[in-house]
Design a protein that fits this description.
four-stranded mixed β-sheet; 21 strands; single chain; six-stranded mixed beta barrel; mainly beta
């Protein structure tokens, strides 16, 4: 009878031992080890194994969970990470398994075209630097001018050198559509994807007189006559005017500035109200039927002022 009772107690103890004994797997930072425990919860089992949890570490299942045979306890250590997104760089400590998991936990939503370095599926490590680059594509339209052409016609009924504007001309407008790509608000690419003409340019049409006026009597019979507007200058009278002309002559009385398209440089002239002269200089404002008469002093040039003159070409020089 006593033997039977002892045997019953032994069997009962063996059953209780079998119920309490559990073999579990503990995984810390990716390294797994087997552990036999009689503890009922994850927290107690980890204490047995000497695993110390640090702030931010994550345990799955939770430390309050009850253990059973074959339970796999995974501890992910929290590691320091530098995260750059939306113009801010912050240092965080996280036990996230991947870059994408970290971004989700931090509330960083990714747009369709955004880039992440390392890639969202990449595992995290201590000291990892994660950067989110915001990619924005947008279209912009720009308008640019289309220059007009200058169409010149000859008018044999108008004296040589006189230019008349028959149509002033108008610039056109072209619209260009660009696709811009910006990375964190910095322009990366600018691609032309199309264009259209919004306004067609109109040609500027001018007529240039070609009729040569020849003196029929008097001292300059047979010479060409030009009706011109005269101004005056003197050496060193103003900015851009020095003492040497375009032909290398000394500036002053008897040397005049002309438009070489009308009077070739080196031509000998006679100007009513001024006298004989040589076409020896040019000027940025001396165009068409304009002539600038040289004087020795600025006072003389100011006294002459601006007036209409007749210019006789005594000897036309060859064009240079």
């Amino acid at each position: 009878m006593i033997l039977a009772a002892g045997l019953t107690l032994l069997l009962l103890a063996a059953g209780i031992y079998g119920l309490l004994r559990k073999e579990i797997t503990v995984v810390v930072a990716g390294r797994a080890r087997q552990h036999v425990t009689f503890s009922p919860t994850v927290r107690q089992a980890l204490a047995e194994t000497g695993v110390v949890l640090r702030r931010g570490d994550e345990v799955s299942p939770s430390v309050a969970s009850r253990l059973s045979e074959g339970t796999r306890v995974v501890i992910r250590r929290a590691v320091p990470i530098v995260l750059t997104a939306d113009g801010r760089t912050v240092s965080v400590t996280s036990a996230a398994a991947t870059v994408g998991d970290l971004l989700r936990r931090r509330g960083v939503a990714l747009g369709e075209h955004d880039k992440v370095f390392p890639a969202p599926h990449a595992s995290l490590w201590s000291g990892a630097r994660v950067r989110v680059v915001r990619i924005v594509h947008k279209l912009i339209a720009e308008r640019v001018e289309i220059p007009f052409r200058v169409v010149s016609t000859q008018d044999p009924g108008t004296p040589r050198g006189i230019v008349r504007v028959k149509q002033p001309g108008r610039k056109g407008v072209r619209e260009r559509l660009y696709r811009l790509t910006l990375a964190d608000r910095v322009l990366v690419t600018r691609t032309l994807i199309g264009e259209r003409v919004m306004r067609t340019p109109l040609d500027r049409i001018i007529s240039v007189g070609t009729r040569i006026l020849i003196v029929s009597r008097g001292q300059f019979t047979g010479k060409e006559l030009l009706e011109m507007t005269a101004t005056a200058y003197a050496p060193w009278c103003c900015p851009g005017v020095d003492g040497v002309t375009a032909l290398g002559l000394r500036a002053g009385y008897g040397v005049v500035a002309v438009d070489p398209a009308i009077i070739p440089l080196g031509s000998r002239l006679y100007i009513e109200g001024y006298g004989y002269a040589i076409a020896g200089d040019t000027g940025g404002l001396i165009k068409g039927l304009r002539i600038d008469l040289g004087f020795d002093t600025a006072r003389e040039a100011v006294r002459f002022g601006r007036r209409a003159v007749r210019v006789y070409i005594i000897e036309r020089a060859a064009r240079r």
